[in-house]
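User: I'm writing a tutorial on reading structure tokens. Could you give me a worked example: one chain, its sequence, then its tokens, then a sentence or two explaining what the tokens reveal?
Assistant: Sure. Here is the example chain.
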Amino acid sequence: MMVEKKPPLIGVSPPVEGEAGQTGTWRSERPVIDPKRCLTCGDKPRDCGLCWMYCPEAAITQGAPPTIDYRYCKGCGICGKECPSKAIEMIPENEP
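And here are its predicted structure tokens:
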């Protein structure tokens, strides 16, 4: 009997434009990733993905380093709080 393999279930969906439009204009701070401190980069890269997993808006994509879609990031700071290497810093939106 052949058993069908199913893909793993995850609770993340891609960001989509809802009734409110692109929500990135709501934030007063934005997360910035320092690739030198990110665990997915460097000489001995590791799988981490905690920022991606905890982002309630699905505005972070996996990668080395992860990327943030600022069109949908609301600046909640959860990604920075969950980052074990403190590679994500929240900076004021008006700073370059």
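What the tokens reveal: Residues 8 and 85 are 27 Å apart (CA to CA). The longest strand covers residues 29-33.
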